[in-house]
Design goal:
Keywords: DNA-binding, Phosphoprotein, Transcription, Transcription regulation, Two-component regulatory system. The chain is α/β, with parallel strands linked by helices. The protein has helices at about 10-20, 35-40, 60-70, 85-90, 105-125, 150-165, 170-180, 190-200, and strands at about 1-5, 25-30, 45-50, 75-80, 95-100, 125-130, 130-135, 140-145, 145, 210-215, 215-220. Helix 2 packs parallel to helix 3 and helix 6 (about 150-165) crosses helix 8. The mean pLDDT is about 85.
Amino acid sequence: MRILIVEDEEKMARYLKKGLEESSYVVDIALNGTDGLHLATHEVYDLLILDIMLPEHDGKTILKEVRSAGIITPVIFLTAKDSIADRVEGLNIGADDYIVKPFSFHELLARVRVCLRRGSHKTSSELTVGDLTLDPLTRKVFRGKKKIEMSPIEFSLLEYLMQHAGQVVTRTMISEHVWDSNFESFSNVVDVHIAKLRSKIDKHFDINLIHTQRGAGYVIEEPD
C-alpha cells in the first residue's frame, strides 16, 4: 500500500513516514501544497494524508482538485482546527476522516487501516493470473491449492504485477509504486526481488507466470 503525506512540519512528516514504513507501508512526503497537489494528481496512491494549513495550496484545495480529477483515493485530514464546523466542512468536501492534532500515532494507524479497508472494498477484489490468486483484503496468496508466504515487499510487488497482468511494467514503474519516489531505479533491487518472487511463484510449478521483457521490464501472464 502506498501513502502520500502532505505536511509542512518536516519533523511531523518524517515521524509519520517512519512509523507507517515500520508498518509495511510505502510512504512519500510533500512539505508544501504545490508538491502535494502534483504528487496527488500525477502518482497513484492508496491513501492521502493531508494537513489542512499548508503553504501555497491548502489541504482543502488539494482535496477539491483531487476529487475534480475523478480520483477517489481515500483522504485523511490532519489539522489543529477542531471545531465541529471545520470537521463537517472537511467531510462534506470529500475527506474520509478527520484527525485533530495532537493525536496518538496508534489512533492514526488504526484510522489508516480503516480507510484502506474501505478503499479496498470499493476498488479491489481477488486478483487471478492462471492458477495464481491474490486477495488484497486477507493478504493471502495461493498457487493452485498451495499457500505462498510473502514478505510485505514481495506482496506489494506481486500485487502491482497482477494489477497490470498482461502489461509490461518497467523497473521505474515498479520501484516508484513498491518503494517510493526517491528510489534509485538504476539499482538492481527490483531484479533481486523479482528473483525472490519467482522462486516462490514459479520455481516449483510447471508453468512460469513471471516473464522478463528484455530491455523493457517484467510482465505476469499465463503463456499462450
